[in-house]
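go over this chain:
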Amino acid sequence: MASPMQILPYSPDLLDSVLADIEGQAVKSAVRKIMESFHANSFPVKIQLIAPDKERAYYRILCYIKKGKETVSINSNKNHGRDGVDMKIRIENHNTFDKLDEFSDNIRNQIVHGYDCHYCSAKCAGKRYIFSYHGKEYVKCQYLGCNFRFPKIMDECDVDSIMSIIDGEQEFKRVRK
């Protein structure tokens, strides 16, 4: 009986397989840049092949800055039953929320209109992200981070915004060491 999930080590060949499972050039570009950035900066990248023995197999990519707490989680879309890639980014660098106007409209809207914290457990106490944008206060859950759900249609401005967030998270970690 095959395992319902296989954990695979990062490699350029595996990256190519993951990208083959994703539709849309800009989305592929974002996933490639994220994975290559984490790998180049010696942050762990775990790739899981979920349900490899099933027709609906897909990849889950987990990129870590802080041990045991993924910074980026990506689920590929092919045969996953959804339109677009599921991507979650945990934003611990709160300065990111001060730069929302620098991001593309799509990314800014994903952050502002993403799920708000609903105090899912006692773990949320004191760990929520609270920020103001254009006079309105937002409360995001640090356990979910800002949940981006990218449609197949995405442009390079979105990719640049995502990479700005990722670069800020990596730099934040280096400064906090």
